[in-house]
């Protein structure tokens, strides 16, 4: 059974790019358009990994991660943050929120795969 | 899904982003914004930047980066939204629109140097530089040398991505043949937040690493053992040919949470003694105590098993639109049209054979009609794509004229056939320009007239009885009738002694060759007058009308057909000919009694319709047919409504049928015929002409007088 990754981004094209890169590597991909939609989906699903954008309407990526880390079910789930900034500040903020790692946009599919390997079995 | 298709989605996103950014900026300008408004604008620009990077649109990415920086300062409260900044943001938005148009292939990349410099100046002026940022941000490069080639900026950005945030301080290293020795000791909390050191070791093994030893010395006795604590340390060797950066990348996510040493091991006999190039990466002093506080009570230590679940592919969020080549769509619409005709022919032939009561045929009729409706609705698009261009036009006009205009848009979701949408843009633009240029007064004049110094232009669309009504309304000075009349007389459009109603004078502005501008301004006076606007609208099967109140403003009303491909028509016979009258014009049809028709002269009659006398027009006379009824009391009279001349009555011999017909263009297949809007193929295979009611009535009423001087 293929592993499931939830891709959270308000941009459909970014989700498409993630989907394309991930399905090519054998992952099943679910999508959510923001933190609220992600939480809804996660209520009845448990992916192996969540990849989330930061800037989103309704609930941003940091908010989503912080919320997930309060839930026992998702406390140890790997979460990667998609960020357009490579600044230490952003990464520190992501780690503080509870992210396992990060991917800098625009991402190279190989780097994406490598980042996933480093946080998910 | 191909990359092009994803890119297509990105283009759509850009449009949506631009629309919400514009709406937000407009709200800001109107002073109706809160933190979320700025946030929305920021997110829109940010998303476009992300996609621009992903698809390699360097100029767009660079521009959005600087735009975003300013918006970020604004939403963080570090900048105040003052008038100057507002102007810059709006200009930046316009340039952004041009950038997006450019990547879509509509025009070349805009010259953004000036606006970019403004954004950079604002972005750098008050931006506190975070002390922690070791590598210079790309922005800093651009700041240091404004006007520097922007591609450099991007390179810096990409370079930053390549190396991550790792400070690759060492020179390109020695000819690295001796293996690396990697010592890793995760912090106590390394297992939190989904971290898993085992995966990192696997990555090192994938690089050719070999496990040398495990340090178990830190494992406590069982009573002090935390289930989620990390107690082990490892030493591995990695072949010397592996790039140091590749090893560091493995630990990218945990570098600050663990003790990590990456050293070049031993000394090869033939190599000079290795200098101290091993750079121990010490954990930041803060990480230790932090790790200690991260210890989690053991009672919550057992993580729930994460069960693998097949994704119920949540495509609902994205897969709602597909892009279809327009040619394919037109072919479909055409084919459905032919199907409608064939179905009608089949029905007719069966009826001729006395087989009319077949239920399946009725079903087929319904299905064909539904199919046609669906096919047509695919071509329909919200009028928003045209309306969305208007705010910018108004902004530019404001800048050029010094007038202040508040634009109101309404009914943007109203759907209209794509062809109509494509061709309505130009007339609409002209009307907007006209309203701002000729309608709205200068702020000083408005104040003098006791009005709000800010003028209002309202653009609205609505669906009304099978047509789309678009109105362009302004609260300006209205039409200067004295001047219009004087000009019309001067240009020989109306006779010197003509007595015209106010409405007739207002409509003079549509007369060919009429222009009211004292000096041809560079705004609406582009050699295109209102007569051309009217022609354009009429070419679409639409009508335009104006209503003006001096001192209060003007309203232009455009009535447009929903589609150019089919219409509901009444099939009538006149003499030995068959015609189609569009249902949208028909109010009622009747066989008059003697008392209802009054004779006015030879061949001239009026019909008494509940007290109103309407002129009766013989279709046969108009089109030069013989053998048709010439006595209205022996004929069928059809009351029609026209935009320009109000109601009139068409006289025909008989009503044959009422059905949907597929419009075939006369212009394309033959040549324009006055009084006919097109042709169609009937069920029996014969061609019937579709009557252009508007022209037909106009021809009759204005037969012996100059146009626009008579109104029914």
Automatic annotation (TrEMBL), chain A:
<dbReference type="InterPro" id="IPR011006">
    <property type="entry name" value="CheY-like_superfamily"/>
</dbReference>
<dbReference type="GO" id="GO:0000160">
    <property type="term" value="P:phosphorelay signal transduction system"/>
</dbReference>
<keyword id="KW-0597">Phosphoprotein</keyword>
<dbReference type="InterPro" id="IPR001789">
    <property type="entry name" value="Sig_transdc_resp-reg_receiver"/>
</dbReference>
<feature type="modified residue" description="4-aspartylphosphate">
    <location>
        <position position="53"/>
    </location>
</feature>
<feature type="domain" description="Response regulatory">
    <location>
        <begin position="4"/>
        <end position="120"/>
    </location>
</feature>
<protein>
    <submittedName>
        <fullName>Two-component system, chemotaxis family, response regulator CheY</fullName>
    </submittedName>
</protein>
<dbReference type="Pfam" id="PF00072">
    <property type="entry name" value="Response_reg"/>
</dbReference>
<dbReference type="InterPro" id="IPR050595">
    <property type="entry name" value="Bact_response_regulator"/>
</dbReference>
TrEMBL record, chain B:
<dbReference type="InterPro" id="IPR005467">
    <property type="entry name" value="His_kinase_dom"/>
</dbReference>
<keyword id="KW-0597">Phosphoprotein</keyword>
<dbReference type="InterPro" id="IPR036641">
    <property type="entry name" value="HPT_dom_sf"/>
</dbReference>
<dbReference type="InterPro" id="IPR036061">
    <property type="entry name" value="CheW-like_dom_sf"/>
</dbReference>
<dbReference type="Pfam" id="PF01627">
    <property type="entry name" value="Hpt"/>
</dbReference>
<dbReference type="InterPro" id="IPR036890">
    <property type="entry name" value="HATPase_C_sf"/>
</dbReference>
<dbReference type="GO" id="GO:0000155">
    <property type="term" value="F:phosphorelay sensor kinase activity"/>
</dbReference>
<dbReference type="InterPro" id="IPR004358">
    <property type="entry name" value="Sig_transdc_His_kin-like_C"/>
</dbReference>
<dbReference type="InterPro" id="IPR036097">
    <property type="entry name" value="HisK_dim/P_sf"/>
</dbReference>
<dbReference type="InterPro" id="IPR037006">
    <property type="entry name" value="CheA-like_homodim_sf"/>
</dbReference>
<feature type="domain" description="CheW-like">
    <location>
        <begin position="566"/>
        <end position="702"/>
    </location>
</feature>
<keyword id="KW-0145">Chemotaxis</keyword>
<dbReference type="Pfam" id="PF02895">
    <property type="entry name" value="H-kinase_dim"/>
</dbReference>
<keyword id="KW-0418">Kinase</keyword>
<keyword id="KW-0808">Transferase</keyword>
<dbReference type="InterPro" id="IPR008207">
    <property type="entry name" value="Sig_transdc_His_kin_Hpt_dom"/>
</dbReference>
<keyword id="KW-0547">Nucleotide-binding</keyword>
<protein>
    <recommendedName>
        <fullName>Chemotaxis protein CheA</fullName>
        <ecNumber>2.7.13.3</ecNumber>
    </recommendedName>
</protein>
<comment type="function">
    <text>Involved in the transmission of sensory signals from the chemoreceptors to the flagellar motors. CheA is autophosphorylated; it can transfer its phosphate group to either CheB or CheY.</text>
</comment>
<feature type="domain" description="HPt">
    <location>
        <begin position="1"/>
        <end position="103"/>
    </location>
</feature>
<dbReference type="InterPro" id="IPR004105">
    <property type="entry name" value="CheA-like_dim"/>
</dbReference>
<dbReference type="InterPro" id="IPR003594">
    <property type="entry name" value="HATPase_dom"/>
</dbReference>
């Amino acid at each position: 059974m293929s592993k499931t990754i939830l891709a959270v981004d308000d941009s459909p094209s970014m989700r498409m790019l993630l989907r394309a890169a991930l399905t090519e590597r054998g992952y099943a991909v679910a999508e959510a358009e923001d933190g609220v939609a992600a939480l809804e989906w996660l209520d009845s699903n448990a992916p192996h990994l969540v990849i989330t954008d930061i800037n989103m309407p309704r609930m941003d990526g940091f908010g989503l991660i912080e919320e997930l880390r309060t839930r026992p079910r998702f406390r140890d789930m790997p979460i990667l943050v998609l960020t357009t900034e490579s600044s230490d500040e952003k990464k520190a903020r992501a780690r503080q929120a509870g992210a396992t790692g990060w991917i800098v946009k625009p991402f190279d599919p190989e780097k994406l795969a490598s980042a996933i390997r480093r946080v998910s079995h | 899904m191909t990359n092009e298709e994803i890119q297509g989605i990105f283009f759509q996103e850009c449009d949506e982003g631009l629309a919400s950014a514009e709406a937000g900026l407009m709200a800001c300008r109107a002073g109706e914004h809160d933190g979320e408004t700025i946030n929305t604008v920021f997110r829109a620009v940010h998303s476009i930047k992300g996609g621009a990077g992903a698809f390699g649109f360097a100029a767009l990415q660079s521009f959005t980066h600087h735009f975003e920086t300013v918006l970020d300062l604004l939403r963080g409260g570090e900048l105040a939204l003052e008038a100057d900044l507002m102007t810059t943001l709006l200009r930046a938005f316009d340039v952004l629109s041009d950038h997006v148009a450019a990547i879509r292939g509509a025009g070349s990349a805009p010259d953004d140097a000036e606006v970019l410099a403004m954004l950079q100046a604002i972005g750098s002026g008050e931006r506190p530089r975070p002390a922690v940022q070791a590598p210079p941000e790309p922005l800093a490069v651009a700041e240091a040398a404004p006007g520097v080639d922007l591609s450099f900026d991007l390179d810096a950005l990409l370079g930053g991505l390549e190396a991550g945030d790792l400070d690759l301080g060492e020179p390109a290293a020695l000819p690295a043949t001796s293996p690396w020795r990697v010592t890793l000791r995760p912090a106590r909390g390394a297992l939190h937040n989904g971290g898993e050191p085992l995966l990192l070791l696997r990555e090192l093994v994938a690089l050719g690493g070999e496990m040398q030893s495990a340090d178990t010395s830190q494992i406590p006795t069982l009573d002090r053992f935390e289930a989620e604590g990390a107690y082990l340390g490892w030493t591995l060797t990695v072949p010397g040919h592996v790039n140091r950066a590749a090893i560091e990348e493995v630990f990218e996510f945990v570098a600050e949470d663990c003790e990590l040493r990456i050293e070049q091991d031993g000394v090869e006999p033939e190599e000079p003694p290795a200098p101290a190039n091993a750079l121990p990466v010490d954990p930041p002093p803060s990480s230790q105590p932090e790790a200690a506080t991260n210890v989690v009570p053991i009672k919550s230590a057992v993580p729930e098993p994460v069960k693998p679940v097949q994704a119920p592919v949540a495509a609902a969020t994205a897969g709602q639109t597909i892009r279809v080549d327009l040619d394919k769509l037109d072919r479909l619409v055409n084919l459905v049209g032919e199907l409608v005709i064939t179905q009608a022919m089949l029905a007719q032939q069966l009826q001729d054979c006395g087989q009319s009561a077949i239920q399946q045929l009725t079903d087929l009729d319904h299905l064909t009609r539904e199919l046609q409706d669906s096919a047509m609705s695919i071509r329909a698009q919200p009028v928003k794509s045209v309306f969305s261009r208007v705010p910018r036009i108004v902004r530019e006009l404001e800048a050029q004229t010094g007038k202040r205009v508040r634009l109101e848009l309404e009914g943007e979701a109203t759907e209209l056939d794509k062809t109509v949408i494509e061709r309505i843009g130009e007339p609409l633009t002209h009307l907007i320009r006209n309203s701002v240029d000729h309608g709205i007064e200068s702020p000083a004049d408005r104040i003098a007239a006791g009005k709000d110094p800010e003028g209002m232009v309202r653009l609205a669309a609505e669906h009304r009885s099978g047509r789309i009504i678009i109105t362009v309304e302004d609260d300006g000075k209205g039409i200067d009738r004295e001047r219009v009349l004087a000009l019309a007389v001067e240009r020989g459009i109306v006779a010197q002694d003509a007595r015209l109603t106010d409405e007739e004078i207002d409509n003079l502005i549509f007369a060919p060759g009429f222009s009211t501008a004292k000096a041809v301004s560079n705004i609406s006076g582009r050699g295109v007058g209102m007569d051309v606007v009217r022609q354009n609208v009429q070419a679409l099967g639409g009508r335009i009308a104006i209503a003006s109140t001096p001192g209060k403003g003007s309203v232009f009303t455009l009535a447009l057909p929903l589609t150019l491909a089919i219409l509901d028509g009444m099939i009538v016979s006149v003499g030995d000919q068959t015609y189609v009258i569009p249902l949208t014009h028909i109010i009622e049809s009747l066989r008059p009694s003697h008392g209802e028709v009054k004779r006015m002269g030879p061949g001239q009659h009026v019909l008494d319709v509940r007290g109103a006398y309407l002129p009766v027009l013989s279709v046969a006379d108009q089109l030069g047919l013989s053998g048709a009824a010439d006595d209205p009391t022996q004929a069928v009279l059809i009351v029609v409504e026209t935009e320009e001349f109000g109601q009139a009555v068409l006289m025909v011999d008989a009503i044959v049928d009422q059905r949907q017909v597929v419009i075939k263009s006369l212009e394309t297949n033959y040549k324009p015929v006055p009084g006919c809007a097109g042709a169609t193929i009937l069920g029996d295979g014969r061609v019937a002409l579709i009557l252009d009611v508007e022209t037909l009535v106009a021809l009759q009423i204005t037969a012996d007088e100059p146009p626009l001087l008579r109104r029914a």
